[in-house]
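Anyone up for a design puzzle?
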């Protein structure tokens, strides 16, 4: 991949469920509030955790096993390759680690990470975790561990960092997200007024008239990112 650019432009990429769809991973938004057949409020909320820890743990154990069997797709790999020509920061709503496994070096997870767990009392006690998490698995402080996931109703710890990064964008790329989930959807409002935006989604629902410099690429992630790279690297 060659570029005639004399300096490294900063690309900020916002990714959602559509980014990982071609790797076989699903999210609740595809099924009207269900995630792999589960009511999301029972498995992705503090109330659900209080009501039935065993159900929540089993749900994420299944998701973790699914993730470990999945592989990065062409779109993940192409974004990693972009680092040869641009300074690339990826802000993702996804809880998988497919961006990292594809080789992307600067990835920020707004909604947590499936392959990590944390203490239910001391949030800073976070552990890499690839096996089942069970009741009785404790942190170093002696408290129950929980999935390292931002549930409905919880604060988004990475939001301030994501805003800071988005403000630096020379180019903003949005892939596979409806831009309906807040606070992630608000990030587009932090770019400069003349910053070009590329929106990749097979069913784009963004209002093109709301943004001065937007290019919509109505394709799945792998095809759309291929087209994006052709645009970005043209002489």
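Challenge accepted. My sequence:
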């Amino acid at each position: 991949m060659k570029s005639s650019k004399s300096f490294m432009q900063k690309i900020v990429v916002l990714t959602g469920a559509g980014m990982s769809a071609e790797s076989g991973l699903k999210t609740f938004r595809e099924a009207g509030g269900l995630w792999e057949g589960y009511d999301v409020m029972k498995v992705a909320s503090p109330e659900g955790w209080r009501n039935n820890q065993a159900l929540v743990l089993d749900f994420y154990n299944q998701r973790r096993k699914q993730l470990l069997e999945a592989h990065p797709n062409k779109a993940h790999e192409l974004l990693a390759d972009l680092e040869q020509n641009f300074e690339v920061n990826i802000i993702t709503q996804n809880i998988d680690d497919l961006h990292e496994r594809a080789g992307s070096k600067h990835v920020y997870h707004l909604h947590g990470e499936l392959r990590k767990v944390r203490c239910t009392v001391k949030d800073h006690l976070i552990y890499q975790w690839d096996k089942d998490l069970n009741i009785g698995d404790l942190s170093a402080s002696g408290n129950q561990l929980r999935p390292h996931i931002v549930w409905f109703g919880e604060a988004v710890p990475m939001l301030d960092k994501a805003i800071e990064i988005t403000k630096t964008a020379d180019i903003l790329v949005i892939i596979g997200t409806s831009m309906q989930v807040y606070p992630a959807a608000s990030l587009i409002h932090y770019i400069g007024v003349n910053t070009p935006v590329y929106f990749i989604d097979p069913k784009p629902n963004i209002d093109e008239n709301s943004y001065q410099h937007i290019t919509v690429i109505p394709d799945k992630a792998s095809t759309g990112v291929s087209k994006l790279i052709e645009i970005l690297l043209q002489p």
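A detail worth pointing out: Residues 1-6 have pLDDT under 50 and may be disordered.
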